[in-house]
Amino acid sequence: MALVKTALVSGLATFIKVISAFVINKIVSVYVGPSGLALIGQLQNFSQLATTIADGAISNGVTKYTAEYGEEDRRLPLLFSTAIKISFACSALASFGLIIFSSQLSEYFLKTERYSYIFIVFGFTIVLFVMNNILISIVNGLKEISLWAKINITQSVYGLIFTSLLVIFFGLDGALLALVTNQSVIFFIIIWFLWNHKIIKFSKFKELFNRAEAKKLAAFSLMAFTTAATLPVSQLIVRNHIGSNLSWTDAGYWQAIMYISTMYLLVVTSALGVYYLPRLSEINDKSELRKELMYGYALVLPVVFIMGLAIFLLKDQIIIIVFTKDFVAIRELFLWQLIGDFIKLAAWLISYLMIAKAMTKAYVTTEILFSVNYVVLSVIFVDSFGLVGVTYAFSLNYFMYFLTMVVITRKYWI
After folding, report:
1. What is the largest CA-CA distance in the chain?
2. How far is residue 220's CA from residue 239's CA, in Å, rounded to a whole number?
3. What gap in Å lies between CA 92 and CA 126, rounded to an integer?
4. Which residues neighbour 235 within 8 Å (Cβ) at sequence distance 6 or greater?
5. pTM score over 0.90
6. d(CA 53, CA 69)
């Protein structure tokens, strides 16, 4: 029942996030079109990589050990203090790099130096992104789902208002600027939410740097950085291949179908992120772990199937509602994208074990292997079948990933 409760509470926050995101996406689609959406995807992928580097890629580790220690454990201040020091140091380096290399980054990712100011602004605000990540990771680890939901709902509503205004008044520049600044105000809102929190308070972050805690976080840092590097980088390569060999409008179509996948799966992935990592981290009994996994499959996969089927049947209406008639070409991408989404969720449910059990070597190896595999399959299939080939690659890659996850993690639950 814990997963159901978590899903209901996080589901409300996710629902508001999805609605906000859809409204933002509609405004972006109207004001910047498919090619502009492709550039926004470029910056989104880069920002994922940059923020993970900036927080030392330790967010999952903070969640895991906060959950594992429990709120009464004396090691919590050591964990919090060490995590915040790592993140401050990493965010300073990331900030320096963003500002110094702003022109080169703009030219490479956004195809012109005109947007170098975006990266300069990002350099000054990235520390606030990092502080947000750390604080939300702690709330997640403490399993305070209601507080987590309130914070995320506030973020969604603020993001909707802030981003919409910038896009309406400044077009593509406004959309890009919103991506790198919307966490600035949110940080202070989170501080307000946590002002009288019994666990998350300033005194808990004043301990000296602790090598033992840093070593524990390092394993998660390597895993998170691998994901942060491989996922957006593989998407950047695929998007660049589509843009260079088909067109940047086609790249925008692919960005659109990926966006639909991300948004509807948030209903499930948000609950998994909030519930599964802390839960699997604290289970050591094999039979109990197997029971938890089977319960997750029985609850999650039917939901994903029903949502995917509904989206496929209503795809024409969804294209017009979420985007504009300029995006009608993406209708051919739905079938295999949705099949791939179903397989992806089946794989993700079991892949959480690698993070929860700190299977660093296996995690890093599979993330790199299947990101490379996705790029190779995408290039081959796009060249052979056109834009729809990228969805063939998506489905096949996750099917191979699912089989690999079963083999790698079986010792923990079989």
Report:
1. 59
2. 28
3. 9
4. 41, 45, 258
5. no
6. 25
